[in-house]
Amino acid sequence: MSQYSLSLDSDTLNTGALLVREVDGAVRAASRKEILTVARELVNVDELHGQALDNPATVRNFLRMRLNSSLEHEVCGLILLDSQHRLIDYLEPFRGTINQASVYPREIVKIALSRNALSIFLVHNHPSGLAEASQADIALTKHLKRALALVDVRLLDHFIVAGATVLSMAEQGLV
Predict the structure, then answer these.
(1) Is the pTM of this model over 0.70?
(2) Per residue in 100-110, pLDDT tens?
(3) CA 22 from chain center: how many Å?
(4) Cys bridge to 67: 124, 140, 146, 161, which one at CB 3.0-4.6 A?
């Protein structure tokens, strides 16, 4: 992938297009994928720190932006929460291929303990655009819930992001 930067100038304001300046200085209109990639990088978890994430809409809006449809691979993340369900941290410790990611419950338990999390949201995207829990998703969720319970950490939900759709496995009775 070539180095580029997105910019907004007075001509852009008139045409509505974001521009990409290539390394060689050439300027062209940004593609949707490039815009979403930059937007993903700009979605900052800092604005959620200390905020109670007890409203599913807040979590869904964050995840729609963070795990948007421009990703061509699966990413599995963790939203770590304190006793008041306030955000401690958001991490993406596992990256996979187009249709799977290896997730290790032992590593999630280690992360939860190292950050003093009392509860967790597990999150991952489906680049296919299908917002449906697979049998592997269901099995992982059950296994992880049991592993975390051994160290008094609650798995509150497992969200699956597929484009603009964010599926809550808890709302589906799968957690």
Answers:
(1) yes
(2) 889 999 999 99
(3) 28
(4) 161
